[in-house]
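Write out the 3D structure for:
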Amino acid sequence: MNWNSLLGLDALTARWRAVAIETAIAAEDRVDLARLEWREHKRSLQTLLILVVALGGLTVVALVILSLALVVQFWDTPHRATVAWCLGGGWTLIWALALWRLLAVVRQLSKPFALTRNELKTDWQALKVKL
């Protein structure tokens, strides 16, 4: 005689087993999502490091060129001054573009794992509703 069948525990056991399997699949999905977001976050950090180094180098170059442009400004030929100021302006423009990109990456890095947090928040809300 199967007491589980007589007491109706088969359905309960099957339901709990299904919930456990579904929970395991959901947890695995969340771990995969966190792993993907970590990879993206690492890539962003690498980009940030490269941009910081580039911005530092461009800052040095821009300051040297602008200083040179200031010195050349007082030389005899006006063409030298025009070229020097154009070079200084060009380096300043490149520096400004690198700074703009750096700030965009920093803003993006300020919210890591947004998708994972959102998914866990949704899961938590669904769990609270069921309870």
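The chain has a mean pLDDT of 83.
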